[in-house]
Design a protein that fits this description.
With 501 residues, the chain is mainly alpha-helical. It has helices spanning 49-62, 80-90, 99-106, 110-122, 151-157, 183-194, 207-218, 280-294, 303-309, 311-315, 320-330, 339-346, 350-353, 357-388, 399-421, 427-433, 438-453, 458-467, 469-476, 478-491; strands spanning 7-10, 23-26, 44-45, 126-130, 144-149, 159-162, 174-178. Helix 17 (438-453) runs parallel beside helix 20 (478-491). The chain is extended, with a radius of gyration of 36 Å.
Length: 501
């Protein structure tokens, strides 16, 4: 018996099986929030946006993912709007879509964009690489995603994958083949991925007024405001019939073959996809609009003015990616007063420096490599800052309190130096040589114990660095030193996370 959340997919037929192929039962698609990261994903990274869109259309048509099973709000199905959001993500490299960017591109609300991004993550089609942050008073950082292909997709179509490097993670699996039973479905998904899903039209159809107008013309009544039939019969009297309904028959010479054709065929000016080819001015305006959307310091600028500024590079065949790569190497300004003027200065002579497509492609590769290196360096800095300032303790602002803290640290250092000089003394003698009485030592140990309960080892680490391990152990005791070592080892492990309350 098959579960209601499962789907039957025909399995690939083996060479030794001459009967009917068995059925593969796929459970419902749902990735919990804790597993929506690249390191925890069970799928594989899509090699390109086209292959990823095949998986998106498969999830949309399989019915394995139902959003309303896991939440009581938001969209009820994985529909055309979610596919349109995926189309925008498939064109981004790297995939770092800001919510504001998708709101402008899609014409949706901010909440709707967040809903559809969450649906793509729950379906296993997106995985976090870096999660965005929102700092009060600062600029929000966009999340970076990896476009993933769920393991259910490979199972349903009989796609064979292999891990070429044993030390590499499982999400780097590569495709080696596909079963015969999945080729037909893959061809259908390829056609869907090649087509662009557009925003559906409004529910009010434009055919209804035309139908009413035609019916009114037959009955001799012209609807008010109609543009279909607005001529009255050119005759004297009050006839209700219109001469527009009469039919003029072609001459008999045109009826020999039964088809009336024009001797000169008309050439269509439209392209195969329904769009007209842009001329030089159209390409300038297109590049200007894309730059205004991509560059923050061009927001609010006139499209016509930016089109005039980029006329040289647009005529040379530059794209928005080429312009962004060139601007990255030219440098960025901290404060921009007039975006069009700055853009004109930065683009001066650019079409001569990068005069060939090969040079522009090389500049784009260098730009993407620099962005990736900067992203990794920023991650390392954030990790180092988090490890350094993870404790709740902050340095005092008062000068008197700072003097007291420095005096306490000086006493600890003096105790450490005396402890190293008196290696042959007993524990009681060492305690007497530190200059601290039993009450002060008990207070220091109690403070260190409270820090260890919160997962902070700063006091003991400071004592070890300034006094040495042996003196620190005599001061804080063997039990506290052992707990500090365990916490420090756990903090360096990727399998454990220490939170402070």
């Amino acid at each position: 018996m098959v579960e209601p959340d499962a789907a039957l997919i025909p399995a690939p037929r083996s060479s030794s099986d001459d009967g009917a192929a068995a059925a593969v039962v796929l459970s419902a698609l749902h990735v919990p929030e804790a597993s929506q990261w690249l390191s925890a994903s069970m799928g594989r990274i899509a090699p390109d946006g086209y292959s990823w869109m095949q998986a998106v259309h498969w999830v949309a048509g399989s019915g394995l993912y139902k959003p309303r099973r896991y939440r009581s709000h938001g969209p009820g199905e994985f529909g055309p709007t979610t596919v349109r959001v995926a189309q925008e993500l498939a064109q981004l490299f790297p995939c770092r879509p800001g919510v504001g960017y998708l709101v402008r591109r899609m014409g949706l609300s901010e909440r709707s964009v967040e809903y559809h991004l969450g649906m793509l993550r729950e379906a296993g089609l997106l995985a976090y690489i870096v999660r965005g942050t929102r700092v009060s008073g600062g600029r929000a950082q966009a999340s970076e995603f990896a476009r993933m292909i769920p393991v259910e997709f490979d199972t349903a179509l009989g796609i064979r994958t292999v891990l070429r490097d044993e030390d590499a993670p499982m999400y780097t699996r590569a495709v080696t083949g596909i079963a015969e039973v999945g080729r037909e479905l893959m061809a259908k998904l390829a056609k869907k991925a090649a087509r662009k899903v557009r925003k559906p039209r409004s529910k009010t159809s434009s055919k209804a007024p035309a139908k009413d107008t035609w019916r009114g013309a037959e009955q001799g009544v012209v609807p008010a405001g109609s543009s279909e039939v607005r001529c009255t019969p050119m005759q004297v009297g009050t006839s209700g019939l219109s001469t527009a309904g009469t039919t003029s028959f072609p001459p008999e010479s045109k009826l020999a073959s039964g088809v009336s054709k024009s001797p000169i065929p008309k050439k269509s000016k439209a392209k195969a996809d329904g769009r007209r080819k842009l001329n030089a001015v159209g390409r300038r305006f297109q590049l200007a609009r894309e730059l205004i959307q991509e560059l923050d310091w061009l927001r609010g600028c006139s499209v016509a003015r930016i089109a005039w500024v980029v006329r040289n590079v647009a005529d040379a065949g530059w794209t928005v990616t080429d312009v962004k790569a060139w601007l990255y190497f030219r440098g960025e300004a901290a404060h921009v007063r007039r975006g069009s003027g700055l853009l004109a200065v930065l683009l001066a002579g650019a079409e001569n420096v990068l005069g060939t497509p090969a040079k522009r492609a090389d500049a784009i590769e260098q730009w993407r490599g620099a962005l990736e290196a900067a992203r990794r360096d920023r991650i390392q800095q954030i990790r180092a800052r988090a490890e350094r300032f993870e404790g709740d303790w902050e340095a005092p602002f008062s000068r008197s309190v700072q003097l007291e803290v420095e005096s306490a640290f000086a006493q600890v250092r003096n105790a450490a130096s005396r402890g190293r000089q008196d290696q042959g003394l007993s524990a009681d003698d060492r305690r007497e040589g530190t200059g601290l009485d039993d009450l002060q030592i008990d207070q220091m140990r109690e403070q260190a114990r409270g820090e260890l309960m919160r997962g902070v080892t700063d006091l003991i680490d400071l004592a070890i660095d300034s006094m040495g391990p042996e003196a620190a152990e005599h001061l804080y005791g063997e039990d506290l030193m052992l707990r500090a070592k365990h916490l420090a080892r756990a903090a360096r492990s990727s399998l454990m996370t220490i939170n402070h309350r």
